[in-house]
Fold this sequence. Notes:
Domain Dynein heavy chain AAA lid: 593-731
Distance between the termini: 51 Å
CATH topology of the largest domain: Helicase, Ruva Protein, domain 3
GO molecular function: ATP binding; dynein intermediate chain binding; dynein light intermediate chain binding; minus-end-directed microtubule motor activity
Number of domains: 7
CATH superfamily of the largest domain: Region D6 of dynein motor
Largest sheet: 5 strands, parallel
Number of strands: 24
Helix content: 40-55%
Domain Dynein heavy chain C-terminal: 738-1041
InterPro entries: AAA_9 (IPR035706), AAA_lid_11 (IPR041658), AAA_lid_11_sf (IPR042219), DHC (IPR026983), Dynein_C (IPR041228), Dynein_C_barrel (IPR043160), Dynein_heavy_D6_P-loop (IPR004273), P-loop_NTPase (IPR027417)
Domain Dynein heavy chain region D6 P-loop: 443-556
Amino acid sequence: WPLMIDPQLQANNWIRKSNQEQLKIIRLTQQNYSRDLESAISLGRPVLLENVGETLDPLLEPLLQRAKFKAGSMVMIRLGDSTIEYSEDFRFYITTKLPNPHYSPEICVQVTLLNFMATPNGLEDQMLGILVAKEEAETERKRLNLVVESAQSKAQLKEIEDRILELLSNAKGNILDDEELINTLATSKLASQRIEERVAEQEKTQAMVQETRDTYVPVAVRASALFFVIADLCNVEPMYQYSLEWFYKIYELSIATAEKVDRNISKRLQALQNQFIRLLFEKTCDSLFEKDKLMFSLLLCFKSMEVDSELNMSEKALLLLACGGGNPERPKPGAPWLTDVSWARISELDKLRAGPWNNFAASFEAHIDSWRGVFDSDSPLEATWPSGLRERMTPLQRALVILAVRTDCTIPALQEVIAAKLGMDFLEPPSFSLEKSFADSSPVSPLIFVLSSGADPMEQVIRLAQKAGMSESIQSVSLGQGQGPMAERAISQGRSEGQWVILQNCHLAPSWMGTLEVMVEELHPDGVADTFRLWLTAMPSPEFPVSVLQNGLKMTLEPPRGLKSNLLRAFASMEQDWFDDACSKSEASQHAFRKMFFGLCFFHASIQERCGYGPLGWNIPYQFSEPDRQICVMQLRMFLEENDAIPYTALRYTASEANYGGRVTDVHDRRCITTLITDFYCPEILKDDYRFSPSETYYAPPHGDLSSYVEYIRGLPINQMPEAFGLHTNANLVARINEAMRLLQTACSLQPKSGSGGGEGGRSSDAVLLATSEKLLGDLPEPFDTEAVAASYPVDYSESMNTVLAQELLRFNKLLRKVRSSLVDVGKAVKGLVVMSAELEDVAGGILTNATPSLWKRFSYPSLKPLLSYAADLGARLRFFQAWVERGIPPTFWLSGFYFTQSFLTGQLQNYARRLKLPIDMLIWNFKVLQRELENPDAGCVVYGLFIDGARWDSAEGVIAESLPKVLFSEIPHIHMIPCESSKDATDKRAVYASPIYKTSERKGTLSTTGHSTNFVMTILLPISRQHSEKHWIKRGVACLTQLDD
């Protein structure tokens, strides 16, 4: 039986139309679907089993295997516990909406797999037919008639030929004496000549019709190509689902609304193309989150450039790979402002050779001082580039240079690429209008709000209902456990009575989504009141039915971004009477409440906005919500009204530990939030001259009415400064770099894993795979000989480092074997010697996109490095341990090189404890950052390889200090780690900052089986100057890292 891959529902629709009367449609999620199947098998009715996943119910196995048997004169088949009669008229069809399913070999041999996915050529032909039917109706009518006539003529010729052959084969004796045969031949000849003349005439007409159709091919080609951009978006978010039917509607709307140009076909074609891509952009953007809109514009831009043969594929590949590469061929120039990552990217651009990239690295080095000016410029895209290079480059080429030299300005460079091809409109999507979306809706298509944390559409829907006169006809159901039947009743009642039904939080009822899908499919114009509307709200969820998303009208809803918008929302929603009555028992109490209320709102906005700065803000991006703020407001009012003295300690605890802190799971994030609250719940906030930041822009306004606070907020800068949240100015660079990298990585993940990569000289993907995997294999050393190491470094009570070494080598050997075997298997799969499994596809995809495969990550130490950098880092770690094996315990330890750093730290403490015969749990670490290298100290160990994030190390003063502009990380010198008894702590009595050490810049990790976080290493005490307190560095988000991302 056929199993059809059918993400665009083309097969599904075809089967439904072909078997309209008797077709039985079932799903594996339906209760008692087997009874319907048994009935259809006995009665000989066709069955469509739709929306299957990657596994099938074992109940179906006899049916798939056609395991029929005879019982007397009857043909029978066994399904589960039932034996039923089998009708030979029975037909079975299976469809899946999964675009790239992975079926087991057992399933594959039992079914006939058919791919019904839309292909570029097939879709192009459909688009051309629609367009010509609208623009040249007579031409398209002729073409369709010609298709029919041509088929009829050819069938008649075939019939005549078959008749002649039949007569000749049956002729007896002399065929010249067969009068019937002679007459038939004469008649056939005349008929054949007439038909051939008609066919020749048809072919002439067909050529003329085709010439007219060819005029419109460019529009159809572009439209077809853009569909696949839309279709791939579901890989970004599961809610980004769009049907082919929806796409057709936009296409037809663009034809109807494009500017009409009399007798100028080229202008009309351009108008059609512009109108279609504009409508597609606008309609799609309503259903995209803000974070994905620019990425979508970039994908549309690249696809348009590709269709117009304006896109250099090697340059595009390098951009999406963020110019990822291996080790540069030329040594890096001595300019301190040029990072290793920037030089590696410049070296990758140099490999492109052609045009402005010819000798690019050498030219860059020769003009290094001029490039410093570009690096220092506030607007590097508008600065003067050496040798007039900026003017000679295309926007895409300029974006590549900016990515390499000033990564934080990549987004403006990409915007320039988009604007140059598509126009400025594609950088500013039209603002969302619920009224407009409602006008586009229908009773049979649900309106779906795709939510982000903190967004609630109910107020907007109720306001719209009042305008539409439906405020008395709204039913709202919040889905959750046991709410399914109530929702079903609401839909049934609403569709008959013409009500609005709102089902909130659909993502919380995944088991009921199958029922929702069936109910939505049963909505037909004939059986639904015209005023009926079904509103659905949901967070992104893979459980949400694809067909509902494809057929519905999707709208994303996000709370306003930015400090100013956040504060405005808090005060604009405040009722005047409540604000006036709060703490009105005395003027002092009311003054304190309003000051601290503003401080609380600022704190709420701050902790939300810190999420935009990545790990500098929070290790884990928490979803702080409006109810958190509201409960704090209630408690603030209660505490102030019930106490004469302000209980600052209690207020801080309830806010930072209970209300907001209840969702904070990371210990260092908890330290941060309890520190931040002290800036707002403090006696100083009551003073009018108290400021929240050094620039004095942000403060609690003087005592006044509600409007005065709103007026102050409206006067705040639109573009917030990181200092408002306690962060360094460089945090803006981090946020912009993270945004750019996320955009490029997402866009890269949507690209087909074929074609040539940057600098690959146009080689096929198979050639790139083989070459890269062979290079990686060649660089891999053999696993360590653990038996020989065990003989040289036996288990020794007085030397725990021997055990540490043995354990580390076992871990690295396991990783090495997995990396080697997967690379070997990828090479075999490319050559067709083994099956390309899902795991091997992951490894192959990583090789082509320079991403470390997830298969390797499961066996690896934490790392965020791209593939080639990861391979280089792994090689450096293996060389460190090889040197240890060959030369003995090293005098200084590369802390970053350990797979499991905690085992090394514990081993050092064990050595000290055993030497002095002390309990290990009585020991703690002291730290001393060295001015010069020290080897083999009497106590403890010397480590190196740490970087500081959010600050820098000031070697002259021996303290941490503010980061230099545009310098995000600073290397820390060697550190002497000294064990000591906790009762005899000899820590430097200067002020210190307790800095966490993480393995990667992501900072967050998971709890491993050993009880340690997979990312957190330990806390190190670093000296700080008197100029700043530890609180300052906590708000800065300062931490140490064992490795950088690249």
